[in-house]
Amino acid sequence: MRNYKSHVISTPDAEIACVDTGGNGMPLVMLHGSGASKHVFCPQFSDQSLNEYRLIAIDLPGHGNSSDAADSAAYNHRGLARAVGLVLDQLEVVNPAIAGWALGGNIAIELAASGRKVRGLALISAPPLPRGPFGFFRAHQPKFDMLLTMKERFTENDAERFTSLIFGDCPDRRGLASVLRADGRCRAHLAKAMFHGEGIDQRRFVENTDIPLSIINGQHDPLLRLNYFDDLNLHSLWRGESQTIADAGHACFLDQPQAFAELLTGFLSDIGHAALSSRTSATVIAA
Question: Which residue, 94, 129, 107, is CA-closest to 30?
């Protein structure tokens, strides 16, 4: 695994833990899903194909080594995106690419919609949702265990079922520990905010943005309806279609890390070349 520095950054909502490989490469910010932590991205930190990039992984408030939010009202997409933005400001990260898994993808969209300059968004098992509950149910499969994503207090059996739901057969045994550690208020308040129609219309944002988007899903995701993504009208979608990783579930980047890395590095390379071409063209015009 690459060397990295660990930081704990104070924000008004929580103490945020993160790791940063540093360097002058394109920053790639990695945001985990509900019940997980930055440790889920260990395979990417070990992947030599990503060595040219500055990798940053953040524990969201109420997760991993970050503290719980002082006020549960901070547990919505806007509040979580604000916390991530403050961390990026402290680390002096400008114009990053963001790879967000599940909840992390929704936070990435919220962050981009806030006006922060973002080079590209890789949405991993993260359907962009309209306001209100109906979009959530259109994008997700009707399973009883889906109710766990909204439950505040977990029994040990709940935690094991939730871990299986998001990690599947992934061999990473830290999954259960991260789920047990997570602040259940985050799940409950995110659900409350969704049902009240809070936050931006994420579907409308991605359908109208010029920010390059990559959508990556697992073939056998037990949570999502993959045909939901086919109905999105995305003019900035990388390669013109969503990417599906064979023999992978919700945590497709853990189930098939090599196939995921090929897609992610392809996307990063393309948006990096596009940015370079844009700067070169601007220089020529100015001359």
Answer: 107
Q: Which residues contact 62 (CB under 8 A, 6 or more apart)?
A: 14, 68, 69, 75, 182, 183, 185, 186
Phi first, then psi: give them for residue 191, nearest 5 degrees. -65, -40
| pLDDT per residue as tens digits for the range 131-164 | 988 989 999 999 899 999 999 999 999 999 999 9
Sheet of strand 54-58: strand arrangement:
5-10, 15-20, 54-58, 27-31, 97-101, 120-124, 213-218, 243-245
Helix, strand, coil: what percent of the chain each, to 5?
A: 45, 15, 40
Q: Do 36 and 101 contact (CB within 8 A), yes or no? A: yes
Task: Give 213-240 as a DSSP string.
Answer: EEEEEETT-SSB-THHHHT---TTBGGG
Neighbours of 145 (CB within 10 A): 14
* 29 three-class SS: strand
Give the position of tokens 């003019």. Answer: 235
What does pTM read for this prediction?
Answer: 0.94
pLDDT, tens digit, 9 for 90 and up, residues 193-229: 988 888 899 999 999 999 999 999 999 999 999 999 9
End-to-end CA separation in angstroms for the chain? 44
Identify the DSSP state of 67: P
Q: Are 45 and 57 in contact (CB under 8 A)?
A: yes
